Amino acid sequence: MTVDMSVKVGNLELRNPVMTASGTFASGREFAEFVDLSHLGAIVTKGVSLNAWSGNASPRIAETSSGMLNSIGLQNPGVEAFIERDLAYLADVDVPVVVNVSGHSLAEYVALVERLDDHPQVNAFEINISCPNVDAGGMAFGTSCVPAAQITEACRAATMKPLIVKLSPNVTDIVEIALAVEAAGADAVSLINTLLGMAIDADTFKPKLARVVGGLSGPAIKPVALRMVWQVSNAVSVPVIGMGGIMTAEDAVEFMLAGASAVSVGTANFVDPTATMRVADGLSEFCRARGIARVSELTGALNTD
Amino acid sequence: MSCAHDTAEPRRVLEGVSVLSNERVTEGVGLLVLRAPHVASTVRPGQFVHLRIARGRDFVLRRPFSVHRVRGESIEILYQVLGTGTREMSLLEPGAVCDLVGPLGAGWIVPEGLAHALIVTGGLGAAPLGMLAEQLAASGAAVTVAMGAPTAERLVARGLYEDVARVVDVATDDGSAGVHGFVTALSERLLGEHQFDVVYCCGPEAMQRIVAAQAAVAGVACQVSLERLMACGIGACLSCVVSTHSGLKRACVDGPVFNAEEVLWDSSEIPPKH
Ligand SMILES: Cc1cc2nc3c(=O)[nH]c(=O)nc-3n(C[C@H](O)[C@H](O)[C@H](O)COP(=O)(O)OP(=O)(O)OC[C@H]3O[C@@H](n4cnc5c(N)ncnc54)[C@H](O)[C@@H]3O)c2cc1C
Ligand SMILES: Cc1cc2nc3c(=O)[nH]c(=O)nc-3n(C[C@H](O)[C@H](O)[C@H](O)COP(=O)(O)O)c2cc1C
Ligand code: FES
């Protein structure tokens, strides 16, 4: 039996539901020796901004129980270098490309989307309003409804391409934000970005990250991510892309059962550079073994009786 | 000048490996020998592997280790027991299987016509220079080594260097072997006494910085190997950045070996434990 692995996220057609989580896969080039990039559902690129950002001071990561903290701070060379290097590279790769965009202000988000909108390599945008590692903008836009909706609306006006809004878990009620960006024109929502956290070295009395706080990712956040995907997918009618601690195919199944139409693999790429393929192959095997004809049947199939 | 960076880098793979032996070298230091045919046949001096020591969800990231030496299909890792990962590593028994990603990074560059090299090591900094010393000696170059460690027992890999180098000078913090004091006193003297073509240095960052300054004064090119916290090890996550005169570089792909004059010695190094 062959399983139909294709899924649709709004107008975006994916070969399989496994995407890469922004910031954990660069633009794919670094992983080309380990995975066939054209077998991915989509590549979601590292966050890009209008101008170059230098990121935060080091140390920028700390390992924690079942996870890691990062405070990279969206270091990137700016959109022009991104077009020249990353999009040029991706032109030769047969895979949908979702560009993750960030800005310090509404005007920057809009200028960035406008700059990239007519580029043939860009299949969709993921608007990052949830990065906990930058001072101006970033998560500040994603933790209350009004700015979240404003950014979404302004980006919506700037592109006809699929618009995914990436949500922050660092909020009291993620459903409220999801509904606000849906009403403002988002074609899909992706969640979760990292959870704000902190690690301390008891020997030195110092924080382990130079920035003191950073974003928690990896298996440690999976239960929180599942809960949020479940809540959001029950509330919105747009598709949900689920992520947070996915290491195995079984993890991906759980996210789909909770309501995700597609999933992203993040921190797992650092542990195992072939993780995306392992998850995609395992997902197909999971369906085959259970006689599930289409992987999309898993979406929202949670049995709560 | 021809250099290792010019030629195509060896292919990086996820390689399943098995433990051939794992022995204590001295207090808190072990030598792990792994059967790793791909890395063994392709690794260049100064490159490293990203080792997954244990499985299970509690223990997330890989650990980077330099390849100390290669023998046939096996690689040797000289490691210091520091924290959770290396403690786990010290418990690996022969026959255990794990996996690594490698070979990774840009290694030491050997300029064409190199006649006399000075190798300066501090503590476990002796690990990533072993394979280089062997290859330089095999190519007929003269190798002088200055080694430093807290005590005589902790002058790890001293035997390897004594086998291949013309001169091995040592310094210990407690005076239990060689000069009582820091290795930087040796390197300063040696740079004054001899004509070297290049200085290769690895050890604590503060020590590398001093050696780099000494080499600059002597007008000798100097290469250093820098440690940074690494998540991916393959250039994707930007956790390992080093500030250089040409911007932020990734230690895992642009390094770990850098030309010393390129490096902006700032506070981006890993903070000392105490
Ligand atoms: C390119 C490179 C080559 C290295 N080669 C060697 C070698 O040949 N021999 C050797 O003994 N050590 C080497 N190190 C250092 C070694 O990686 C660390 O000692 C080791 O990761 C510590 O792990 P742990 O779990 O015991 O420590 P923990 O403190 O429990 O580790 C917590 C986290 O911090 C990281 N970390 C802690 N200290 C270091 C460090 N000094 N460098 C990098 N990451 C660190 C760990 O990888 C882990 O992610 C090298 C480091 C790099 C970057
Ligand atoms: C090192 C690192 C860098 C990240 N960079 C970005 C980024 O640039 N943009 C973004 O939207 N999310 C970024 N994220 C968040 C991930 O895309 C993802 O939402 C989060 O890590 C949870 O998934 P995971 O547990 O599978 O890693 C980053 C995460 C990590 C660990
Ligand atoms: S460790 Fe990820 S970029 Fe260097």
Question: Which characteristics define this entry?
Answer:
heterodimer, A: 305 residues, alpha/beta, TIM Barrel, eight-stranded parallel β-sheet, four-stranded antiparallel β-sheet, 16 strands, B: 274 residues, Elongation Factor Tu (Ef-tu), domain 3, Rossmann fold, 2 domains, seven-stranded antiparallel β-sheet, seven-stranded mixed β-sheet, globular, disordered N terminus, binds flavin-adenine dinucleotide, binds flavin mononucleotide, binds FE2/S2 (inorganic) cluster
Question: What do you see in this structure?
Answer:
- The complex is a heterodimer of chains A (305) and B (274).
- Chain A is built from nine helices and 16 strands.
- Chain A has 305 residues and is of the alpha/beta class.
- Chain A has a single domain, classed as TIM Barrel (Alpha-Beta Barrel).
- Chain A has an eight-stranded parallel beta sheet with strand order 3-16-15-10-9-8-7-4. Chain A has a four-stranded antiparallel beta sheet with strand order 5-6-14-11, with no helix packed on it. Chain A has a two-stranded antiparallel ribbon with strand order 1-2.
- In chain A, helix 2 packs parallel to helix 4, helix 4 packs parallel to helix 5 and helix 7 packs across helix 9.
- Chain A is globular.
- Chain A starts with 6 loop residues before the first strand and ends in a 16-residue tail after the last helix.
- Chain B has 274 residues and is of the alpha/beta class.
- Chain B is built from six helices and 16 strands.
- In chain B, helix 5 runs parallel beside helix 6.
- The N terminus of chain B is likely disordered.
- The N and C termini of chain B lie far apart (42 Å).
- Chain B folds into two domains: 92 residues, Elongation Factor Tu (Ef-tu), domain 3; 110 residues, Rossmann fold (3-Layer(aba) Sandwich).
- At the A-B interface, strand 5, strand 6 and helix 8 of A face loops of B.
- The structure holds flavin-adenine dinucleotide, flavin mononucleotide and FE2/S2 (inorganic) cluster.
